[in-house]
Amino acid sequence: MIEVALSPLDEPALARLLDAAVDGADPLEVMPPVNGAPGWTPERRTAFLEFHRARCLNPATAVERTWVVDVDGEAAGAARLQSHGDAVEAGIWLSRVRRGRGIGTRVTALLLAEARSTGAARFLASTTAGNRGARALLVSAGAALTTEGDEVTAELPLG
Questions:
Q1: Residue pLDDT, tens place only, 31-88
Q2: Cα separation values, 135 from 2, 3, 12, 85, Å
Q3: What pLDDT shows up at residue 100?
Q4: Amino acid 102: pLDDT
Q5: Which residues lie closer than 8 Å to 75 by C-beta, 6 or more apart?
Q6: Which of 109, 116, 57 is nearest to 86 (CA)?
Q7: Cβ contacts of residue 113 below 8 Å, gap of 6+?
Q8: What percent of the chain has pLDDT over 70?
Q9: Which residues contact 28 (CB under 8 A, 6 or more apart)?
Q10: Distances (CA, A) of 89 to 11, 47, 69, 118, 124
Q11: What residues contact residue 97 under an 8 Å CB cut-off, 6+ apart?
């Protein structure tokens, strides 16, 4: 059986996360756009590190908790929770070779448990209309989906 675990993001884990992103994801799947040539340029790698440091590791600017998704002991993606009032918004990305194997379902269960432990009342997530896998995962977790154009929002009460 595949072992799936969440490791809290810290500097050593961030280096592992960058390696997983470079090896298995397009930059636009895992970070905000950066001007310049496409692909994992040195500038984009630096921006990836700075993005995560600002959002999670720097106490003065942190807005979310982030974990490395470890699959059989190897970094395979990231998971996050960000507070929004009485809700938490979740986000997950996985390396291409890890998608479609049930890992996202297991990560979602871990995030739901973490969200419940914080006392949040609702679990939120968003994806695109074309991401059938994410939509199916969210529905199987019990979330109600709302679609506006290409944006799909999921909401699941935690109470």
A1: 999 999 999 999 999 999 999 999 999 999 999 999 999 999 999 999 999 999 999 9
A2: 23, 23, 32, 24
A3: 81
A4: 87
A5: 13, 16, 17, 19, 20, 68, 69
A6: 116
A7: none
A8: 100
A9: none
A10: 23, 23, 17, 12, 4
A11: 24
Exposure on the CB side of residue 28, measured as CA atoms within 13 A: 6
Query: Is-contact 157 121, C-beta < 8 A?
Result: yes
- Beta carbons of 55 and 63 less than 8 angstroms apart: yes
pLDDT at site 85: 93
Residue whose C-alpha is closest to residue 30's, from 10, 43, 48: 48
CA 107 to each of CA 4, 18, 29, 44, 57: distance values in angstroms, whole numbers, following the listed order: 7, 19, 17, 26, 21
Range of lowest pLDDT (100-104, 118-122, 135-139, 153-157) = 100-104
Q: Which is it for strands 65-71 and 122-128: parallel, antiparallel or unpaired?
A: unpaired
Distance of CA 129 to the CA centre of its chain: 17
Contact 100, 133 (CB under 8 A): yes
Pick from 128, 125, 120, 127: nearest CA to 142: 125
67 contacts 90 by C-beta, under 8 angstroms: no
